[in-house]
User: Fold these one by one.
Assistant:
Number 1:
Amino acid sequence: MKTIITDLGNSTKIAKALARKLGIAYTNTTLSSFPDGDIYLKYNTKLKGNKLIIMQSFQPNSDQSLFDIIFAAETAKDLGAKRVILIAPYLAYMRQDKRFNPGECISSRVMAKLLNNSINKIITIDPHLHRYRSLKDIFKIPTKKLTASTVIAKYLKKNIKNPAIIGPDWESFQWAESIAKQVGCEVTCFKKTRYSSRHVASKMIKPIQIKGKNIIIVDDIISTGHTILEAAKTAKKLGAKSITAICIHGLFMEGAVEKLQKKGIKVISTNTVEHATNKIDVSELISEAL
Ligand code: R5P
C-alpha cells in the first residue's frame, strides 16, 4: 500500500514539506466550484489500494474546509483508497464545546460526527480542549493530539533573552506553563473576563516579576486579538520591557495583527495556519508522529 499526501488549499506548504521529509508522493487535488457554487473536486492520481493523507487546516474558512474534507474523503473511499487520514494542523469548532445559551448548536460535536463517518484517523495540533478532557470525548475514530509547545519553547530559548511568560486566561495557562517549564522562566496566569466576543478585561492572579522583563503572552488561538490586547495592557502597566504575543493557531480576524502591532506588540505564530507571522514550523512534529 503506497502513501500519498494531498491538501485542499489551506496547507499546501506544510503538505509539500511533509512529503519531502517523509519521501512520499505529493499530489495536488483540483478543487473549484461550478457556476452555481456546487463543489467540483478531482483527484489527479490513482488512489485505489493506497493510503491517502489529506492535509487541511480548518482556516481560512472553517465551514468550507470541513465541507471540502468530507467531499475529499468520501471521493477517495469511492475511488478505492484503503485508508483516509486527516491531518488538520488547526481543528476548528472546538471552542463551542457546550451549549452556552439555550438552543445553540454544539458545533464541535457535529464536526466530529461528520468526520467520524468519513475518515479513518485524525491527527491534529493543540486542539482547544477545555471542557472535553480528550478528543476521544467526541471522536470514535483513532485520534492523535500533538503539541507545539516544544517547538515554541525551542524558538524562545534561541530568540528571547530574560523572558517571563503570561497565559492571558485560565484556558491558555496549560500552554504557558508547559513552555515556561521548558524555557526555565517564570510564568503567571491572568484572569480574563469576557463581556462579549470583542470585549475582555484581564488582571494578574499569581504575582511574578513583570518589570524589566521581555514578556511573552502565549495563547493557543488569536482570533480578534482582544484577549492579547487586554493582557498586554496590564503587562505594560506593570512595567514590561517588551511584549511578544505567540500563538499556535493564528486566525487573525478583523485585522488582529495590525491592531496588536499598532500597540507595539510583536506577533509570532506557528504555521498550523499559513500567515506572514509564521516563524515556528510544526512540520517536524507531524513527520515524527507519522
Ligand atoms: C479562548 O478560549 C482561546 O484560548 C483564546 O483565548 C481566544 O480564542 C482568543 O480570542 P480573541 O483573540 O478573539 O480574544
Number 2:
Amino acid sequence: MALIECRNLTHVYLKGTPLEAVALQDVTLSVEAGEFVGIIGPTGSGKSTLIQHFNALLRPTGGALRVSGIDLANPRADVKTLRQQVGLVFQYPEHQLFEETVYDDVAYGPRNLRLNEDEVGERVVESLALVGVDPNRFGRRSPFSLSGGEMRRVAIAGVLAMRPRVLVLDEPAAGLDPKGKEEILGQIRALHQAQGLTVLLVTHSMDEAAQLVRRLVVLARGRVVMDGPVREIFRRAQDLAALGLGIPAIAELMLRLRGSGLQVSPDTLTVDEARAAIREALRWN
Ligand code: ADP
C-alpha cells in the first residue's frame, strides 16, 4: 500500500459561509515509501492546504485520504501516531524555536513522547548530527544566538527527533543566503539518500526542484494538473508558463541556445549535463 494515498481529496475552507473557498478539488495522488516528491504551483494553488492534510492539521472535507495506513477521513483517526510518523516543517520553522537551549528545543518532542532522559539525549544527538549541527558545540547555546541557517537546521532537527517516516517541508531554503541554502538542501538530500526518508518538498524554486526531486506534482487552482518525472515536467515549458511557472535556469538557457540554432539536447537540468550537451552540439568530443 502507498504511504500516502489521496483519492478525490477535496478541501473547502469556511464551507457554507460567504467566505467559502475551495482550496483542493479531487486531488488523486499516491506517494510510495522512499520517494522524493516536489510540489509546485502558483500562489493560492493549494500546496500548503495539501501538505497540512498529511499530518492531519487539516481534515478532508471530501474524498479519501490514508497516510501510513491511517484513514484520515475518519474523525476518530489516531492522529497522535500519525504525527510521529509524518514530520511537517513549516516555512521559517525557526520562528517556532522557544526553549533556552538548542538541546532542550530538540528534546521537546521526544520528551512529550515520555521517553526516558537517556533516550531523549540519544535522539537529540542523532538528529542534530543529521542536520550537521555539532551537539557538543551548540547544545547548550541559546537557539537565538545562532545564524539563520543554523536556527533553521535546529528546528528541522526537532522534527527529526520524532524519527518520522515522512518529512514534509514547506520552502525549507526560503530566505537563507546561498551558502545556507546549499547546506540545508544538501542535508535534505542526504536524509533521503542515507536514511531512506520519504520526502515531500514544496518549493517555488524550479532550480531547487531540478537539483533535488525525482518526481514533481504541479497544482493549479486546487487540482493536480501534472504529475511525473521531473524531466518530463520541465519539458513542458509552455504549459508551465501558462500557469505562471518557470523552468530551471539551465533548462531555460538550453531552450535559448536551441532558439539560436545550437542543437543541444532539451533534456538538460544540471550544469554538468549542460556542459556535456553543449560539447556534443559543438562536436567537441
Ligand atoms: P498555496 O500554498 O499554494 O499558496 P493555499 O493552500 O495557501 O495555497 O491556499 C489555497 C486556497 O485556499 C487559496 O484560495 C487561499 O486563499 C485559500 N485559503 C487558504 N487558507 C485559508 C483559510 N485559513 N481560510 C480560508 N481560505 C483559505
